UniProtKB/TrEMBL annotation:
Keywords: Metal-binding. One of its GO terms (cellular component) is cytosol. InterPro entries: Metal_Hydrolase, TatD-like. A divalent metal cation 2 binds at residues 108, 132. It comes from the Bacteria. GO terms for molecular function: hydrolase activity, acting on ester bonds; metal ion binding. Gene3D superfamilies: Metal-dependent hydrolases. This is TatD family deoxyribonuclease. A divalent metal cation 1 binds at residues 73, 175.
Length: 214
């Protein structure tokens, strides 16, 4: 079994299983030996031709699929078309479903930090919540860490934020970037001043612990 080094991408990897591929529930078609996350993205709550009720029905079935490792992207985005109240409702639905199905939650967040923290306090999840594609400053990273979040870094980020994240709360991802995950590991290892192999082993253990342990 391959433990994925890339926890969030929208592209199928060359070797199935090397990355967790994010999919919409209504278009999920798994490759053999691939790993996936599925969720209702805040951008597409209202803009899709598929109804929200149908998306929820698909999602509730897919979270029990053996190749689906995580819920997400779920999130809050003040630039999305859907109202923030509807986004909160859909996010809370997914967060509670993640708890019921014993899955970590991968989060898309834009300009809604306070709202997210309030929801975390309300829901009090046991399963990890992971901010994907984190680009904020170190002070925001510290705020998330105080509230128990994990942080995943892609191609663009603040170097000081990457440096301060404890090793057991850290993930790397390609998201929509064409930069390889190998390059991202090499760069992150230089910033953290550790060997690339050490960083890979650290993240591998995190992935195994968070995404595979039931």
């Amino acid at each position: 079994m391959i433990i994925p080094a890339d926890i969030h991408t929208h592209c199928q990897p060359e070797v199935p299983g090397e990355a967790i591929v994010n999919c919409f529930p209504e278009t999920f078609v798994p490759q053999q030996e691939g790993w996936y996350s599925v969720g209702i993205h805040p951008w597409y709550i209202t803009s899709s031709t598929v109804s929200l009720a149908e998306k929820k029905r698909c999602l509730e079935e897919l979270l029990y699929h053996p190749q689906v490792l995580a819920m997400g992207e779920a999130g809050l985005d003040k630039l999305a078309d859907a109202s923030l109240s509807l986004q909160r409702e859909v996010f809370e639905y997914q967060a509670r479903l993640a708890e019921e199905t014993d899955k970590p939650l991968v989060i898309h967040l834009v300009k809604a930090v306070d709202e997210l923290l309030k929801l975390k306090q309300k829901i009090r999840p046991v399963k990890p919540w992971i901010i994907h594609g984190f680009r904020g400053k170190a002070v925001l990273a510290e705020e998330y860490l105080r509230h128990g979040f994990h942080l995943s870094f892609g191609e663009r980020y603040q170097e000081e934020a990457l440096r301060i994240v404890p090793s057991d709360r850290l993930f790397l991802e390609t998201d929509e970037s064409m930069t390889s995950i190998d390059t991202l590991y090499e760069r992150a290892a230089m910033i953290r001043k550790i060997p690339s192999g050490e960083l890979r082993e650290t993240v591998r253990k995190n992935v195994e612990e968070i995404f595979f342990r039931r």
